[in-house]
Amino acid sequence: MLHGEIEPRLSHEGTGAILLDGAGAVFDDSVQEKVWRLARDLKFMHGVLETVPGMNNLMVVFDPLLLDAYVVETAMRDLWEVPARGENAGRIVDVPVFYGGADGMDLGDFASAKSLSVDEVIQRHTAPLYSVAAVGAMPGFVYLSGLDPSLAAPRLANPRQGVPKGSVIIGGGQTGIMPITAPSGWHILGRTPLDLFDPNRARPALFAPGDRIRFVAERMT
pLDDT at position 210, please? Predict the structure, then answer.
């Protein structure tokens, strides 16, 4: 383990799942790369049913009739100690966004609360190359790392019951995209026409962990 790196914490979630938590006080991209590697390697282990990367954590689900929990736990700890081997980066995808207006109802108030102009908010939101740290919460939802800290904002006190599909949103220190219309307390800055989840596609979720996203302003109102 590298100097300064946190010892991962393992906990049993019932008889057929183990959660590895490598999170520190703030999100760490190097820890996330380890999480992705473990997820890829462990899913080929006989008896493992599923690996689910989260934000600096990983859930491994296995069949306890085929695989002893001690074996899984040992494999997780051993793989965690393997040095980085230059993982292949994911795809880079441009995501068109219509900022403001009916597509981004919170953009004006969000900018005012930050003492920024709308243009400055959009510039800061489109500047980074974001990493898809994890996919979850709802089918196709992407948790993106890389948000400019100046745009971090607490979630709304009263979540909306129906944030439209395609909404580009900010909540806490993260930004994301709504794959379906669903409740959310995140701030709506814009909308993308991309379809993040389609169960009829060969690959239903548009993005996978490790992919990178660049928001591109198509229209500002």
Answer: 87
Cα–Cα distance for residue pair 89/83, rounded to 1 Å: 17
For helices 29-42 and 69-80, give the axis angle rounded to 10 degrees. 140
Q: How far apart are CA 97 and CA 216, in angstroms?
A: 6
State pLDDT tens for residues 118-159.
999 999 999 999 999 889 888 999 989 899 999 999 999 899
pTM: 0.80
CA 4/CA 85 separation, integer angstroms:
19
Identify the CA nearest to 196 among candidates 100, 107, 132, 151.
132
Q: State the distance between the two ends of the chain, measured CA to CA, in whole angstroms.
A: 49
**Exposed/middle/buried for 138, CB within 10 Å: 0-12, 13-18, 19+?**
middle
Sheet of 57-62, strand order: 9-12, 17-21, 57-62, 48-53
| Of residues 152 and 1, more confidently modeled | 152
How, if at all, do strands 92-99 and 212-220 pair?
parallel
Handedness of CA 139, 140, 146, 152 (dihedral sign): negative
Span 164-174, average pLDDT: 95
d(CA 74, CA 143): 28
Whether the Cβ atoms of residue 126 and residue 216 lie closer than 8 Å to each other: yes
